[in-house]
Amino acid sequence: MKEVNYIDIAVGVLRRNHQVCLSLRQKHQSHANHWEFPGGKVEQDETAIDALKRECLEELAVETQNWQPLIEIPWQYEQVAVRLHVFITDDFSGEPVGNEGQEVKWFDIDALSGLTFPEANKGILLALKMANQYMISGKFSGVDEALDKFGQALRSGIKLCQLRAKGLSPTEFSEIAKPAIELCHQAGAKILLNGSIQLLQDFPEADGIQLASNVIYEYSGRPISHDKLLGVSTHTDKDIQQALKIGADFILLSPVKETSSHPGVPGIGWDVFSEKVKSISLPVYALGGMQPEDVQIAKQKGGQGVAAISGFWPG
């Protein structure tokens, strides 16, 4: 396979409360009339963060600091391949202005889906909406215990959940799913259902579906509508490519560490996780032996955060 020569681009998300700062590309530029985040090419002997500080000063007349990693996106356009090194900060001084004649505006994060961006920015928009902790439901002995544990997790700050309840009858699943969805939405959290895409017909209020790696090969394209989230569990490079093919919104990659549920199966480790993430243009969660303290490690390695059962599901 021919090696791709990527141009490194630093991209910065300036955040103020629940808003982000965007610029409108001008008529003489490629992707004219598309909104974009500030940034530019990383020059020789310059780090991505150095480039961001320089570009924000030049483009927007603001001084920035405390940039934190958000996502890294490899993308191949017809004529050029770019690698977007995306960071986020709410630590800046000055009010952004169009120093180069461009229109500059603040937008609510929830309104970004209605704007036009360069295609490579899809992963950025997803990463801004996704939490860095993804709780997968664990063991429970009945409806009351399941809902009690969901409530505990939501009160602790969990904002992204997965209802994974294998072996339940449709009636038993419904008894848990409907109130769990309501609980999550009351807490401002999102919830995905683990299982068949048909579950969205039965529970249209759910925020999406989590597909296991052994079923994704049944599809040749995206199997659900774009107004729902599609998460895909992956273990191999082949799984990852299939997840991208069917239009996943985010990916779970496992096992990063050895887990109690699969003793003796070694994890891929953080270095391999980081290397694999470099080829993925979407948010990626590390799964397998994860604990809350692993979130920052995952983000430093290029991930969105971590997914876990025992790490987040109340005991």
UniProtKB/TrEMBL annotation:
CDD domains according to UniProt: NUDIX_MutT_NudA_like, TMP_TenI
Cofactor annotation: Mg(2+)
Coiled coil: none
Matching InterPro entries: Aldolase_TIM (IPR013785), MutT-like (IPR047127), NUDIX_hydrolase-like_dom_sf (IPR015797), NUDIX_hydrolase_dom (IPR000086), ThiamineP_synth_sf (IPR036206), ThiamineP_synth_TenI (IPR022998)
PROSITE patterns: NUDIX (PS51462)
Reaction(s) catalysed by this chain's protein: 8-oxo-dGTP + H2O = 8-oxo-dGMP + diphosphate + H(+); 8-oxo-GTP + H2O = 8-oxo-GMP + diphosphate + H(+)
UniProt KW keywords: DNA damage, DNA repair, DNA replication, Hydrolase, Magnesium, Metal-binding, Mutator protein
Domain Nudix hydrolase, chain residue ranges per copy: 4-132
EC number: 3.6.1.55
Family membership: Belongs to the Nudix hydrolase family.
Record protein name field: 8-oxo-dGTP diphosphatase
Organism: Thiomicrorhabdus immobilis
